[in-house]
């Protein structure tokens, strides 16, 4: 199980709140990532650590289809995003870049920012605050994409 701290966000969190459109003009994801969640928490990029988790409510990642939204989260070292539900294009973009996105209906209402949790991605289990939560497991082909680091790496893998 992988352990990290939680950063919790609200329902209907859109991609503009993850990375505002004016920062899409920056030339690299590394330059963009320091502006992640800037409108919600101006210090987010300095507080988050490699291996931390994002927890959201319903419809996480709604809005535009920009791939930079999950990319800046991955670049900051976010281990996985757990939410009640995801916007479809955000979900697919996250898998495509190798960032795990997990549906867990009960967890978001029971945790707060700063809580520590453990995730077993393969078994679809989370432990937080002494409680075990069962999550939706990713399909094996999606897990294979994640294991390779994203869709392009998966497609380029030589057998």
Automatic annotation (TrEMBL):
Keywords linked to the UniProt accession: Lyase
Location of the Aconitase A/isopropylmalate dehydratase small subunit swivel domain: 37-99
A Pfam match: Aconitase_C
GO molecular function: 3-isopropylmalate dehydratase activity
Highest rank taxon of the organism: Bacteria
The EC number(s) this enzyme carries: 4.2.1.33
Statement: the UniProt record of this protein carries the keyword Signal: no
Family label: Belongs to the LeuD family. LeuD type 2 subfamily.
Full protein name: 3-isopropylmalate dehydratase small subunit
């Amino acid at each position: 199980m992988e352990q990290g701290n939680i950063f919790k966000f609200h329902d209907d969190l859109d991609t503009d709140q993850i990375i505002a459109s004016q920062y899409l003009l920056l030339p690299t994801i590394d330059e963009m990532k320091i502006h992640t969640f800037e409108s919600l928490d101006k210090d987010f990029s300095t507080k988050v650590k490699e291996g931390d988790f994002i927890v959201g409510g319903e419809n996480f990642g709604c809005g535009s289809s920009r791939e930079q939204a999950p990319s800046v989260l991955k670049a900051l070292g976010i281990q996985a995003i757990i939410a009640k539900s995801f916007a479809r294009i955000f979900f697919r973009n996250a898998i495509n870049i190798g960032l795990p996105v997990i549906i867990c209906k009960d967890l978001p209402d029971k945790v707060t920012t700063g809580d520590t949790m453990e995730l077993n991605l393969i078994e679809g289990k989370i432990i937080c605050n002494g409680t075990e939560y069962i999550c939706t497991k990713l399909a094996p082909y999606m897990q294979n994409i994640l294991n390779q680091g994203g869709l392009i790496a998966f497609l380029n893998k030589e057998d």
